[in-house]
Amino acid sequence: MGAKADFEVNFTTKFIVKPTNPMVDHPHILSLSNLDLLSGRFPVSYFYFYPNKPHDLHAATDFSSIIESLSTSLASTLDSYYPFAGRIVPNQHTNEPEIMCDNSGVLVVEAHANIPLKELNFYDLDQSLQSNKLASISPDFPFQIQVTFYTCGGVSITFTFDHALGDATSFGKFLLSWSEIARKKPVSCVPDHRRNLHLRARCPPSYHSSLDQSFVKCTMEEIMNIPTAKTLIKRLYYIEDSSIKHLQSLASRNGKKRTKIEAVSAYVWKTMVTAIDTKSHGMCKMGWLVDGRSRMHKKENQINPMSNYIGNVLSLAFGEASVGDLKQGSISDVASIVGEAISKVTNEEHFLDLIDWIECHRPGLMLSKVVLGQGGPALVLSSGRKFPVAELDFGFGSPVLGTVCSTIERIGVAYMNQRSSAKGDGSWTVSSILWPELAAALESDSIFQPITTTHLQL
């Protein structure tokens, strides 16, 4: 057998897709909410991979027809999600970012790879993402798409959003709506873009003093130049359903059932302390992104008014423990620390305090001190269990993989993002940004398996 060809991508076409019949005809400014200012303005890229299915009578294998179908359905979707077709500009008085809803459009890039999909290195994301091969990003567009065709007839689609547009819940609703429109199905979400209706600061604003220890006002320059003491590598893992259930069983003791996220977090946290310099660091942190939609404006027996809200409604929960306690404690012991840390922010009062804290520190951007690299060794885990994966069928079949990875080069923490696998069998894929020692420690066990084409059934 000959050596595999180096992965190369040829960019062939760029064009702009605008809304067909935008709900808002005249340009207007959409001011960001306080929680939007906590987003960090990081670009977020979602990667979906679709194999060629020649046996499927409904599969579109013609590249031009795929591009045409995606463009037409995207234009229709942007009618309702019109901020995604706008521009992000600085406010002339405060310099804070805001969305100019002027229907400028979304950038779509068509590309052709020189290998079949099964030869792509899914595990080593650094290799697949190098030189912007799968995510070519233009700073002029807050939302852009790359459609890459492979020699086997397979397709990958990369969706890159500026975090100021929204969070994972927002982007998931948009992508699902788009796929529904592409398949001429009823749309399941009527988006709510009223950013300052739901997330206003109280008058007068007030907050718990602990927020001063957790968050800090910062500039875009500070975000772009986050100090990184360690080299970080990007990897994609597969976790079998049986491994997740086993960890959940170990974590659930004394009549307390732990969630799967709590159980896997406990395992990761215990593994993490074996991969840090314990002479320099006696304490170790772990964090979790928490969506506040279900915690805000909660009323008994009523539909959550924020269920279709488009924007950022995220906070960060952090737990801290000594290296000794994490090493010596059981999975159950550490899961208890995890559960307690998360519970501190899964309530409306925390989010109201956070909104007020930001109000008191405006104008400007805000970020967690730990994410800015100010808190010692730490790892943040984000759960995407509700994010659409197998459901994202644009008319040419379901994907074999849907995952996320940031294309940014500098971040102050290690990071993991969990997704349900496209198999729908309870297994997970975990996109990770880790220091090499932690990657090696995780891979020494059978739980975090470097993802392969066998896992993806390619």
UniProtKB/TrEMBL annotation:
One Pfam short name: Transferase
TM spans (from-to): none
GO molecular function, one term: acyltransferase activity, transferring groups other than amino-acyl groups
Organism superkingdom: Eukaryota
Gene3D superfamilies according to UniProt: Chloramphenicol acetyltransferase-like domain
Residues of the signal peptide: none
Gene from which the chain derives: LOC110748617
Listed name of the protein: Anthranilate N-benzoyltransferase protein 1
Entry similarity comment: Belongs to the plant acyltransferase family.
InterPro entries reported for this sequence: CAT-like_dom_sf, Plant_Fungal_Acyltransferase
